[in-house]
Amino acid sequence: MPLDEIDRGLIHALHIDGRAPFSRIAEVLGVSTQTVARRYRRLSAEAGLRVVGLADPHRAGRAQWLVRLTATPHSAPDLARALARRSDTSWVKLASGGTEIIAVVHTPAGGADGRSLLLHDIPRTAGITALSAHYLLHTYLGGPTAWRVRANVLDPRQRRQLTPPARENTTPSPATGATPTDDDRALLSTLQRDGRAGQAELAAATGWSPATVARRLAALRASAALFFDVECDDTLFGATTQALLWMTVAPARLEQVATALARHEELAFVAATTGRTNVVAHALCPDPAALHHYLTHRLGGQRAIHALETAPVLRTVKAAGSLIPPSARPS
């Protein structure tokens, strides 16, 4: 399905404020509320559009590991689906001809219990031939920062109209404000399935009053402890070729290189990790020729990159939010 300007504007608007009322988005786009609601339902059904609410891992006391698994061809798809069903995983991808699985695993920061998946569950799974785990040290692009190709439709005035007041008037600080607690578990779990869940649904899930839900949501958002991401089929934006790039960068130049990469339109994710390859990025390009051009020209100009491994992504089994069956997608 091709995307027109209204579709693209709606997706950009949701990146700015995932819970913005359709009436406000409609006013900014210059269309009716019914048009926005109808487009949202169509994009949800046909393009996998979904808003998900996510806790900032550092504020929530969580560590993130990027796990690479090499598996036999017949076992890799089943293993990827099994990993996707777990509540402690996100961004599960099949790569490298379908024999490599890449996933983000969320564990309690510094806790021994959180290493069970890495050190116990996975090695006992049949069909795995290799495993490596890379601690995500710092994210330069990704999370609350949208891929630029998805967020290039609305002008500065429209962006200001959609920016929530708490973000417009203050700079959220991870050092201050609300921090997710065990009491927020039901709230965050519901938002991870549907970031646009209504106050009544959130109140039913938490046992709180709608007013309490509204106050807690506002506090978590104002302190950047909670952000909203948007899932959508990136092929509709022309990204038919995707790859994960594993780079070895001179430590003294890592900050400079990663900051520069975060400005590249071809990349949707850039992070520093532990391991022999200390920078990882997710590239989205129109075709293999465009990926080759990016690797040889733009990345080739970064002299501090000493080694580069490219793992083509075949399929994303799970994105940022909870895995839910298509029939249960929010309408």
In whole angstroms, how far apart are the ends?
18 Å
Overall pLDDT: 90
Q: Mind summarizing the main beta sheet?
A: 8 strands, antiparallel, barrel
In which order are the strands of the major sheet placed?
2-4-3-10-7-9-8-5
Q: In what range is the share of β-strand residues? A: 25-35%
What is the alpha-carbon Rg in Å?
20 Å
Uncertain runs are 168-176, 327-331
- Following the backbone from N to C, one meets helices and strands in this order, namely HHHEEHEEHEHHHHHEEHEEHE
Relative helix content: 25-40%
Please report the total strand number as a whole number.
Answer: 10
The global form is globular
Number of helical elements? 12
Which structural category do the helix and sheet elements fall into?
alpha+beta
Task: Provide an overview of this structure.
- With 331 residues, this protein is α+β, with helices and mostly antiparallel strands.
- It has helices at residues 5-16, 22-29, 33-47, 76-84, 116-121, 156-162, 165-169, 185-193, 199-206, 210-222, 254-261, 288-298; strands at 50-55, 62-71, 89-95, 100-108, 128-141, 226-231, 241-249, 267-273, 279-285, 305-318.
- It is built from 12 helices and 10 strands.
- The strands form 2 sheets. It has an 8-stranded antiparallel barrel. It has a two-stranded antiparallel ribbon with strand order 1-6.
- Strand 3 and strand 4 form a beta hairpin.
- The longest helix is centred in the first third of the chain and has 15 residues, at 33-47.
- The protein is globular and about 50 Å long.
- The relative contact order is 0.17.
- Mean pLDDT is 90; it is low at 168-176 and 327-331.
